[in-house]
């Protein structure tokens, strides 16, 4: 491939965003797994890890953590409300959706913290703006960096410090000078007319090119190496303290859900000693405007099965016991059901924090179902207090430095020091 064509291709890729992200600090899975064994759990916070699970679409928090004893709940959504005998009771007022038995077991082990009424000032019902606010931690005005990305900048992190196993790199992991890696869960997919030889040619370094071109080219070589590594990851040997465990779920989509596949790769990296500090994974489809009961239960069942298996696996190994999981969605749903047996975009909702070191229980105040803001719940907890607690306790950094100067109120989410 001639140099001019190659440079144009790299520039076009950068303009599209994918190569630009990789060229400024990303990496393929092969290089990521090459760092296995570099994690130092004895270093100050070196072994502590955060897994961020994003539920895209706006999960209905009222049918996830159900206020089953509140008459206003049953009155507002007569066709969608769960009867008290169906929910998995947490106490005499709240219960989990009946398809979340795995999370209920984690609650019973006191390793699941449920933070109630989480939102942000002046809520926005747009999926894109609300998700942008959550991932950038900037409710006041749009910014170009995510809160994890700013942490990457602040600690001058290597590219493997934050990894996304989502289809595209989320704004969460984008900093000004550092960018997390984005690795496809099911390997390399080439567009029509592009074969592996073409990609390999794009990855060959050539003299006279800028450092941006050279680093973009390296990302294409990573793509090819990642394809083979993804297919082999599930067959890798287990560490000694994980001997005898069942095999991880398949990493390709199919029998296992996409979330289970993403978490399987996180497990593999944690057990292999990869020094990644933050992982980002996701599950989409929560925009339940119609026929919510069936759709949300199907999604929550995937979340429950994947997450409960993941947390159970974490508890087995020393490295796994240093992992904390955050589960959030961009907003909740409106209190009253709509005419299509669904719910429309709302505001506040519950957030889950879980893991072996988490102090399980209820945090914050359940919003009133009668004292509403134009039909929506009033947030009782700023999401930056949750994020700030995780930045301080898991990433061992000053939260205000990465939250635009916001000084969060720390939550006692951990029963042991990480």
Automatic annotation (TrEMBL):
Which InterPro entries does the entry link to?
Answer: DUF1501, TAT_signal
Signal peptide span: 1-23
**Pfam families in the record:** DUF1501
* UniProt entry keywords in alphabetical sequence: Signal
Q: List the PANTHER family hit by this protein, alphabetically.
A: BLL7424 PROTEIN (PTHR43737), DUF1501 DOMAIN-CONTAINING PROTEIN (PTHR43737:SF1)
- Protein name as annotated: Tat (Twin-arginine translocation) pathway signal sequence
Q: Which organism is it from?
A: Micromonospora gifhornensis
